[in-house]
Amino acid sequence: MNEPLYTIPLAQRRKENLHIVFWLMKDISWCLMWRTFGMIMIVPTLGAAIWITWRGRAFATDLAHNLAVVFWITANAWWMTAEFFDFDEKILWHGISGRHFALIPFAIGAAVLLKHYLGEFLAARMAGSGRA
Questions:
Q1: Rounded to whole angstroms, how far apart are CA atoms 99 and 79?
Q2: What's the domain range around 30?
Q3: How far is CA 18 from CA 15, 63, 94, 124, in A?
């Protein structure tokens, strides 16, 4: 096998792993309705995701996936906030409830990945047809 090797510095990997701990703490707080701790944990969880995205921005695949994670955490944090402050079921605008506003960052994250994979697919098709 003669594939290129992709490596990540250990310090960066540790921060990425710590990010998972933050995310779990945030979601456990949500599950247990620990409002203050859950709200506090948004900052390190989202902050770490943004840092990871910034660090990986040189590689299109990493950038796309990490941006999707940033939008996923944003949507997740909005939904959690809506539940904590009891506006998740409340209609906020044009028949849309507080919880459903989380669909905006979820959709942006999905669109980022769709654009990335569609771009890769089209590039592979063009390369295969000799038009690249």
A1: 5
A2: 10-129
A3: 5, 19, 39, 35
Residue 4 lies in a domain: no
Say what the alpha-carbon torsion angle 38, 77, 60, 118 is, to the nearest 10 degrees: 150
Contact 63, 87 (CB under 8 A): no
Q: Is residue 35 part of a domain?
A: yes
Tokens, residue 79? 């939904």
Tokens of 44: 């390190």
- Helix-then-strand count for the chain, H and E: 4, 2
Asked if the structure places residue 22 within a domain, the reply is yes
Tell me the average pLDDT across 103-113. Answer: 97
**Total-model pTM:** 0.86
Q: Does residue 6 carry a pLDDT above 80? A: no
pLDDT for the residue numbered 3? 82
Residue 97's H or E segment, with its range, is strand 96-97
Task: Tell me the C-alpha distance between 102 and 110, whole Å.
Answer: 13
Domain presence at residue 16: yes
Burial of 15 by CB count in 10 Å (0-12 exposed, 13-18 middle, 19+ buried)? middle
